[in-house]
Amino acid sequence: MFTAKIIILPLIAALVTFLVMPVVRKLSNNVGALATPGDRHVHKNIVPSSGGVAIFMGFLTAVLFFNNVSPEIMGFLIGGAIITAVGLLDDIFDLPPITKFFGQILAALIVISAGVRIEFVGNLGAGNDGLYYLGFLSLPFTFFWIIGITNAINFLDGLDGLAGGVTGIAAWTLATVALISGRQDTAILAFTLGAAAFAFLPYNFSDSPRKKIFMGDAGSNFLGYSLAVLSILGMVKIAAAFSMLIPILVLAVPIFDTIFAIVRRLVAGKSPFEADKMHLHHRIMDRGISHKKTTCIIYGISLVLGIISVLSMKLDGSVVPYVFGLTVIVFILLLWKLGLIKIKI
Do strands 131-133 and 34-35 pair parallel, antiparallel, or not at all (unpaired)? Predict the structure, then answer.
């Protein structure tokens, strides 16, 4: 049964997402969920922007065949529906940031109340099991993780295929890690999420004005939220000192891009939520690299980080933090060498 589900459910998610996308695109035009060109956008034409609804529908339809919906997964789905709905309203009416943030908060609180929590993190040798149990800090720690990853994917959604592809790679990496760790249910959900994200890409990459669509806030918020929750269900709940490092490594690209963006804006005296054109993908493009090549470069970085994450599962737990630290250093030096960040030496 497990073997069938891990193949069939992702196929259902991909098929439904792909087939529903033209319908969602038409409805997007009818209700005014459109992305217009502007200083902060790289596209030149008006494009429908509610593709995330089709991604959610594909994922939800597949999960209906899951037959093992625990309270945690039910909370996850309810929160996902809320965050997608608020994102769609933003795509239509351009909601104030505080309203969108409220939707994220509500979704996070619902899934946390359903039992999805980060209860411990690696303490690198402290205690008998090398773990630091968070206690009452579990709730705020989980809350900020979900909100942080949700916004990280939202910030990353700036080029055709970027957020969808990076999410797909991250989801399938988390699924592989979950399989190795014996978390079969989470592996199925993560493979299913990745399949839905990948099914969106042909429309997002399309050059045809009759096919092209963006995922919008409905998509980027749902995908970020889902990655955050699945990383908790699949890896963070495993009693190992390196349990928190693997999801961070898997999601390193959106995490570091978000951290740099927030620091950059605060230093400039701006709101951390104020959009700009200085994200990782913008800086790569500033070097004269095309949209698609920029997306492929970031895909490559994400894939390498994913492979390192999976290989780390086979290493001794005491070695993983050093692998993590070395990878972070190499990643930052690569960005510096490319001129994407400035480091004073």
Answer: unpaired
Look at residues 95, 35, 257, 24 and name the one whose alpha carbon lies nearest to residue 163: 257
Contacts of 275 by beta carbon, 8 Å cutoff, 6+ apart: 40
Q: Hey, where are the domains in the chain?
A: 2-240
Instruction: For residue 219, give both structure tokens.
Output: 């998509």
| Alpha carbon distances (Å) from 38 to 43, 236, 267, 317, 326 | 8, 40, 25, 48, 39
Residue 345, burial from CB neighbour count under 10 angstroms (0-12, 13-18, 19+): exposed
Phi/psi for 120 (5° steps) reads -155, 160
Question: What does the pLDDT read at residue 43?
Answer: 56
Please report the sign of the dihedral spanned by the C-alpha atoms of residue 320, residue 194, residue 229, residue 237: negative
Q: Is the pLDDT of residue 298 over 50?
A: yes
Local confidence band at 125 (pLDDT 50, 70, 90 cut-offs): very low
* Distance between CA atoms of residues 174 and 170, nearest Å: 6
